[in-house]
Every structure is written in C-alpha cells, then in structure tokens.
Amino acid sequence: MDCGIIDWGGCSPGHFPAKMQASVTSAEGEILDEHEDGLLQCFIDEYYKECGILLNLEEFRRQWWLTYCSYVQSMGTNIEMEIYRCTPREQWKTIRDLWDDRAVGVWNVRCFAFMIGSALKYLHLRWTRKGRGKLHIHDTFSEWKAYWETKGMT
Question: What's the domain of life for this entry (predicted)?
C-alpha cells in the first residue's frame, strides 16, 4: 500500500503498454488526450533510468494505440459480463444517469461504466480532431494488420 497500488489485478508480467494502460483506465478523457505523449515519455524516461534501455517513443505509442484497440473491445465485453451481471439489463430502462445508486452504488458497475465513459470521451476528442473520419487507433491497427498480411500471418 505504501506505493499506492490498491488494485493488484494488473500486477503480472506483460507487455509495457498494456500494464501502463491498466494504470490510467480511469483517467478522464480530456486528461488522457492532453497528456498522452507526456505519460508515454515519462514511462520511457523512467524505464531508461531504471535499466538503461531507451525505448522509442513512436514505437511505444504505436503499441499503446494497438493496446487501446484491445481495450475498446474489452469495454463491450465488460458491459455484458460485468455491468449487466451486477445491474441487470431490465433495470437500465429506469436508470437516468450513472449517479443512480444501482450504478454508482455497485463496485463493478461504477468502475466499468466510468472507465468506459472516460475512454469514449478520449476517443471522441481524437475522432473530432482528426476530422470525424476514422479513429487514430483504427489507422494504427490497419497498418499493423497490413504488415502481417504481407507475412502471410492473417
């Protein structure tokens, strides 16, 4: 507890962007949008100080955005597997906002609903800035997929 970790769910081996993303899932969309590169660079700087390996910001950002694609998919899963499990779908017909006790008063519902809201705000800001075409993470995923298609891996 001295280090501030109160949720040990993400404390396991894995690739860095996924672990870092797990630590900012509740960041407000506007904050993540404004400080995304700064957060990534901070991680890179601290990692370098710790072990002497300098990560490339462009590659780290690319992996961060690919991880965000997976996170977006998991949001849909969490609606079905967590939110509707804890507060059944029928009850949502009478819930007017997330401050209703059936939402905010239920740990998993509150956590997942607010994380989803923050992520959607972040994505909306990026989508709007990009001209309301495709999301920045879509372009990153498409480039990644095209690369592996050339290798016969899809």
Answer: Eukaryota
